[in-house]
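tokens incoming
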């Protein structure tokens, strides 16, 4: 494996920052640190990078605002603290990003949102739309409605799920250590620094321990597991010290700072195989010869105008098969419309959708990014 930066050729980056960094070890939202990252994010955006921020710190900030010196044990108190603190976090990011001329948006997500196909697709469309409008999304967990996540307090997993969701090239996890060591450096002064490894390498899990501070929760293990999860969609991970001067800019310039955990598979190949492996067919559509040729030969999206018949009872976000007029399966993908809607807009141009459906939505039935051609990958047989 080479030591070349995993940011080489990267365009879309998810940056995750932990509670202790964001709140200066619980002293309160750290304006200077957040200002520093926002300045770097603006420079990256200027250079054409698309960046999504995942920021922890709501509970730590809420505890400070409520005057609580120790982390409450009761779930509803943790949730109340998160609700209070999230106001401060959002306010700080909005202030610092707008000072850099960047528009921002707050997105609160739960793991369940991303496990549900329809919500997954909605969250994905929202985030991609924000990026297309050059708005920087700042994401945290929706702590008010979750139980497990708030107990474990781990936003590293959320960072990885977001990297999968937006098909990021790289997940950068900023923390209070320079990266991964062979053992927790707070406990073992002899611990060796690991600069490069393969994401998903099981030996890394043995090196990583829990959180060393009272503010952070996940520790290094959740970061290593996040890297393993991110690499499933082809994203590499960097774990680096959040206070390293110009850390994001230097990473983008190719400097080998932090621990680089390389993804083995290419982004596109990983996503397509993931779709082929994990998804169950809920229905199918037959398409005319023109649409079949566009998909097969030009790699285009499937537009409803090319759809002749709709089979099954599927919902938006579920996987359906796309078949040629003789029934041969051509592709599989995530549908933007339910079966009932697809029946209404089949054979129609997108200009007619609003009149038929009562609202304007995506022009594609299946966007090419959400579709695999059967000829490209091994897919399990249709039921
Ligand atoms: N092998 C390791 N290498 C580096 N840090 C480790 C390791 N094992 C455990 N840690 C601990 O993980 C901590 C970072 O995790 P955490 O406190 O959850 O941070 P964050 O709030 O940034 O998510 C470090 O401060 C360190 O004490
Ligand atoms: N979502 C919560 C908890 C997240 C959390 O503690 O994660 P991290 O500090 O990244 O290990 C918050 O904003 O306080």
């Amino acid at each position: 494996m080479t030591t070349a930066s995993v940011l080489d050729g990267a365009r879309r980056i998810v940056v995750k920052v932990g509670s202790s960094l964001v709140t200066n070890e619980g002293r309160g939202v750290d304006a200077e640190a957040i200002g520093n990252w926002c300045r770097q994010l603006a420079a990256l955006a200027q250079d054409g990078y698309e960046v999504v921020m995942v920021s922890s710190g709501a509970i730590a900030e809420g505890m400070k605002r409520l005057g609580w010196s120790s982390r409450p044990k009761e779930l509803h108190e943790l949730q109340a603290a998160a609700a209070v603190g999230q106001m401060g976090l959002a306010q700080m990011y909005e202030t610092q990003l707008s000072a850099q001329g960047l528009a921002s948006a707050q997105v609160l997500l739960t793991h369940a949102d991303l496990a549900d196909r329809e919500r997954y697709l909605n969250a994905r469309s929202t985030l991609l739309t924000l990026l297309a409008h050059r708005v920087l999304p700042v994401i945290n967990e929706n702590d008010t409605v979750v139980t497990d996540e708030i107990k474990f307090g781990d936003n590293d997993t959320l960072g990885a799920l977001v990297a999968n969701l937006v098909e990021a090239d790289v997940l950068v996890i900023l923390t209070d250590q320079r990266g991964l060591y062979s053992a927790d450096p707070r406990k073992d002064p002899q611990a060796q620094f690991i600069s490069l490894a393969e994401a998903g390498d099981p030996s890394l899990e043995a090196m990583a321990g829990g959180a060393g501070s009272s503010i952070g929760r996940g520790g290094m293990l959740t970061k290593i597991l996040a890297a393993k999860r991110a690499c499933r969609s082809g994203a590499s991970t960097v774990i680096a010290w959040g206070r390293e001067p110009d850390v994001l800019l230097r990473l983008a310039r190719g400097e080998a700072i932090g621990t680089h955990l390389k993804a083995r598979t290419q982004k596109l190949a990983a996503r397509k195989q993931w779709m082929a492996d994990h998804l169950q067919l809920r229905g199918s559509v037959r398409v005319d010869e023109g649409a079949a040729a566009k998909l097969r030969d030009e790699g285009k999206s499937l537009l409803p105008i090319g759809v002749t018949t709709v089979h099954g009872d599927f919902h938006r976000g579920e996987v359906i098969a796309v078949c040629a007029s003789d029934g041969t399966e051509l592709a599989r993908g995530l549908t933007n419309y339910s079966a009932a809607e697809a029946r209404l807009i089949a054979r129609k141009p997108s200009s007619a959708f609003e009149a038929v459906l009562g609202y304007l939505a995506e022009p594609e039935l299946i966007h090419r990014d959400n579709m695999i051609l059967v000829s490209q990958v091994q897919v399990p047989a249709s039921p």
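note: The chain has two domains: 12-265, 272-373.
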